[in-house]
Amino acid sequence: MARTRAGYVEKGISIMKLVIIGGTGLIGSKLVARLREHGHEAVPASPDTGVNTLTAEGLADVLQGASVVVDVSNSPSFEESAVMDFFTRSTRNLLEHAAAAGVKHYVALSVVGTERIPDSPYLRAKNAQETLIKSGRIPYSIVHATQFFEFVNRIADEATVGTTVRLPPVLIQPMAADDVAKAVGRIAVGAPVNGTVEVAGPQQFRFDELIRQGFAARHDPREVVVDPHARYFGAEFGERSLIPAGEARLGEIRFEQWLGQPVLQQR
Ligand SMILES: NC(=O)c1ccc[n+]([C@@H]2O[C@H](COP(=O)([O-])OP(=O)(O)OC[C@H]3O[C@@H](n4cnc5c(N)ncnc54)[C@H](OP(=O)(O)O)[C@@H]3O)[C@@H](O)[C@H]2O)c1
């Protein structure tokens, strides 16, 4: 039976207000649901709910009384200058308003390898976001996640020319969005680490093998070709650039298990 908020208070579990920037997105909506299941006041914030981090519209209001901000927003465009502008402008606005509201913990979701792949415009922008957070005044936790299973199709589409998908033979350790939300939720309600926590999936693949496995499950006829110089979102990668550098916290959901779910639940 679901516990009521009063029930949590009775049990001595502390209830927090957490504002989830991008709380209507893939990770954000799962995170909001999980935090609420645990009795917290999780407030989704995005243009859909009247909060825009680029213009700061709605930020002061939504952050009132919040102890934690979790930024799981994403740039609508991955174009080089647009994505850099998105992550730097929105992070500056968020840091300023979060500090003014007395927020005690600033959490942001980023990507494993941001510091290792300067060729990638997207990862450069994520790295700039992280630098701003690290040089800010609010205690923080940065979560580095690997690629989401839900993103694998987009990766394949990005690498497709005609009916051929060209991919470099590098390692990848993707994870389910549910496992990402679980990891971010745990970190958000804990003490700030003032550093980076890496999270990843339970299995490592070679990039081309992962995409082939996804295509086989969906009867996608595209041909997958290994090309050591194939670029992934504009960058060339080393064999281990996309996998955690240190000891990562691992998710539980395996790729074949996720592929076996009805398509509508794969989101
Ligand atoms: N994809 C991957 O494999 C991967 C791997 C590791 C880390 N990540 C990181 O995970 C994060 C979340 O990704 P996701 O796939 O969950 O994103 P998503 O589904 O695309 O959701 C993006 C969210 O950002 C919100 N947003 C967009 N513009 C905004 C603005 N100006 N102000 C406030 N909110 C805004 C959107 O709101 P509306 O719906 O209202 O527009 C939406 O709620 C990203 O930061 C990404 O870098 C991704």
For the biggest β-sheet, the strand order reads 2-1-3-4-5-9-12
Q: How much helix is in the residues?
A: 25-40%
Largest sheet: 7 strands, parallel
- Please tell me the overall pLDDT: 93
| Structural class category | alpha/beta
How large is the radius of gyration?
A: 19 Å
Helix count, DSSP H or I runs of 4 or more residues: 9
Report, as a whole number of angstroms, the end-to-end distance.
26 Å
Number of strands: 12
- Give the distinct bound molecules: NADP nicotinamide-adenine-dinucleotide phosphate
Strand content: 15-25%
Q: Report low-confidence residues grouped into runs of 5 or more.
A: none
Helix and strand pattern: HEHEHEHEHEHEEEHEEHEEH
Principal-axis shape equals globular
What is the strand and helix layout of this fold?
Elements: H1 5-10, E1 17-21, H2 26-37, E2 41-45, H3 59-63, E3 68-71, H4 80-100, E4 105-111, H5 121-134, E5 140-145, H6 152-158, E6 160-161, E7 164-167, E8 171-172, H7 177-189, E9 196-200, E10 205-206, H8 207-218, E11 223-226, E12 249-250, H9 255-259
Parallel strand pairs: 1-2, 1-3, 3-4, 4-5, 5-9, 7-11, 9-12
Antiparallel strand pairs: 6-7, 8-10
Bound molecules: NADP nicotinamide-adenine-dinucleotide phosphate.
